[in-house]
């Protein structure tokens, strides 16, 4: 049984748009079929996708023609529409749209993509009103009726798994977060006007710039029991990529730092594998460039004042790791609700032991694919998928027992 590729469109071919493309290209179950960006020509889009100062040269052949890009022999339609409602996603088969312009971040604005034939829209930024999902934290709450959603911010994706582990094991009473964040495209190369954010107008390459961020408060949206218990700020620093979260918090239960390290390591190897990383090496920021985890706990960098007051440090590639979560969200959750036409079931020798007339539920077929092809998934997602979707749709006794066993890993 094979799953057809999920057809994806990208609106906005800036930093995140291009890095999402690169990550999607590494996933054989996802195909980017269309890109929209009104501010760049196709030839220039080819150049920017091919060469990247931070992540290196694209590893496959790229060219362009009058209507789009050709990547690895596959054609990608290129649009230049300013209004998302005018993008004809349906003519390319694009069903899942990554909204990465940073402009259309509300449900109403992002919903314009639905007029062109899109079925789902992921906003690659925090949203004021769209539901936010952080992989490894609250993705199991996604339901099929949600058409527009937010992947939150890169910093929230780093902080939330960390906060989840602390709260689950010792209770997170309150906390302050500081993200030491690389400069981004919105900052200035030389001093210039910047509206009300006067500090933000200073040159990025020469300064450490204090800034505001809603990333910590957003954790309260994905972990409701932490609502009002976290806040934070940002320090923008003169590095081009990779950032680090400093979470200083009080716990409800007493804990030693060694106990924290042990639990974080176990989580990184178990339920949060692929989401939360763990290192005891003496790493620096460039060592984390290209890391696909949302958050990499630095065991050697944290400290504890006492058994209830601790400082935790966790790295994140704010471009690559975040973009990988966008891709994971498309594959791991949108695909759970695809119609039967999306799957091609090919019986194998293993299937001969089953009744020939047995009709496997649609989501069970999807589950077989996900279990047999687990590369894009982490262990927690597999377990959640089995428990929530497969067991509830499987009545065949000989199949149910193996699923129960798998769900316990």
Automatic annotation (TrEMBL):
Gene3D superfamilies, sorted: Dihydrodipicolinate Reductase, domain 2, NAD(P)-binding Rossmann-like Domain
Domain Glyceraldehyde 3-phosphate dehydrogenase NAD(P) binding, chain residue ranges per copy: 6-154
NAD recorded as keyword: yes
Domain of life: Eukaryota
GO cellular component: cytosol
The enzyme's E.C. designation: 1.2.1.12
Catalytic activity: D-glyceraldehyde 3-phosphate + phosphate + NAD(+) = (2R)-3-phospho-glyceroyl phosphate + NADH + H(+)
Molecular function GO labels: glyceraldehyde-3-phosphate dehydrogenase (NAD+) (phosphorylating) activity; NAD binding; NADP binding
Enzyme class, first EC level, given as a word: oxidoreductase
One Pfam family cited in the UniProt record for this chain: Gp_dh_N
Keywords tagged on the record: Glycolysis, NAD, Oxidoreductase
Pathway entry: Carbohydrate degradation; glycolysis; pyruvate from D-glyceraldehyde 3-phosphate: step 1/5
Annotated family: Belongs to the glyceraldehyde-3-phosphate dehydrogenase family.
Name of the protein: Glyceraldehyde-3-phosphate dehydrogenase
Species this chain originates from: Arthroderma benhamiae (strain ATCC MYA-4681 / CBS 112371)
Organism lineage: Eukaryota, Fungi, Dikarya, Ascomycota, Pezizomycotina
């Amino acid at each position: 049984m094979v799953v057809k590729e999920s057809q994806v469109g990208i609106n906005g071919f800036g930093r995140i748009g291009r890095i999402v493309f690169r990550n999607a290209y590494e996933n054989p179950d996802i195909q980017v079929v269309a890109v929209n960006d009104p501010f760049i020509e196709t030839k220039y889009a080819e150049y920017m996708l091919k060469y990247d100062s931070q992540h290196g040269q694209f590893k496959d052949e790229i060219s362009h023609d009058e209507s789009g890009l050709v990547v690895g022999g596959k054609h990608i339609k290129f649009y230049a529409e300013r209004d998302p409602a005018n993008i004809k996603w349906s003519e390319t088969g694009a069903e899942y749209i990554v909204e990465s312009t940073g402009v259309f971040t509300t449900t109403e604005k992002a919903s314009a993509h639905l007029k062109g034939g899109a079925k789902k829209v992921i906003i690659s930024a925090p949203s004021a009103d769209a539901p936010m999902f952080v992989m490894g934290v609250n993705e199991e709450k996604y339901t099929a009726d949600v058409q527009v959603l937010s992947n939150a911010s890169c910093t929230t994706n780093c902080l939330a798994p960390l906060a989840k582990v602390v709260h689950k094991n010792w209770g997170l009473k309150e906390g302050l977060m500081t993200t030491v964040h690389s400069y981004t495209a919105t900052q200035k190369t030389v001093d210039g006007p910047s509206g009300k954010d006067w500090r933000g107008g200073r040159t990025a390459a020469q300064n450490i710039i204090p800034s505001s961020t809603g990333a910590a408060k957003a954790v309260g949206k994905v972990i409701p029991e932490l609502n009002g218990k976290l806040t934070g700020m940002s320090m923008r620093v003169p590095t081009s990529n990779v950032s680090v979260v400093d979470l200083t918090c009080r716990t409800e239960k007493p804990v030693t730092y060694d106990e924290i390290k042990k639990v974080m390591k176990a989580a990184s190897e178990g339920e949060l594998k692929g989401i939360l990383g763990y290192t005891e090496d003496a790493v620096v920021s460039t060592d984390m460039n290209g890391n696909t985890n949302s958050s990499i706990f630095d065991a050697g960098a944290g400290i504890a004042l006492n058994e209830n007051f601790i400082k935790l440090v966790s790295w994140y590639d704010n471009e690559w790791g975040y973009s990988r979560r966008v891709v994971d969200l498309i594959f791991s959750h949108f695909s759970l609700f695809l119609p039967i036409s999306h799957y091609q079931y090919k019986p194998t020798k293993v299937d001969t032991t089953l009744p020939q007339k047995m009709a496997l539920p649609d989501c069970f077929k999807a589950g077989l694919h996900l279990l047999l092809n687990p590369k894009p998934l982490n262990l927690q997602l597999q377990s959640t998928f089995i428990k929530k979707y497969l067991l509830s749709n499987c009545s065949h006794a000989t199949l149910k027992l193996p699923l129960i066993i798998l769900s316990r890993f």
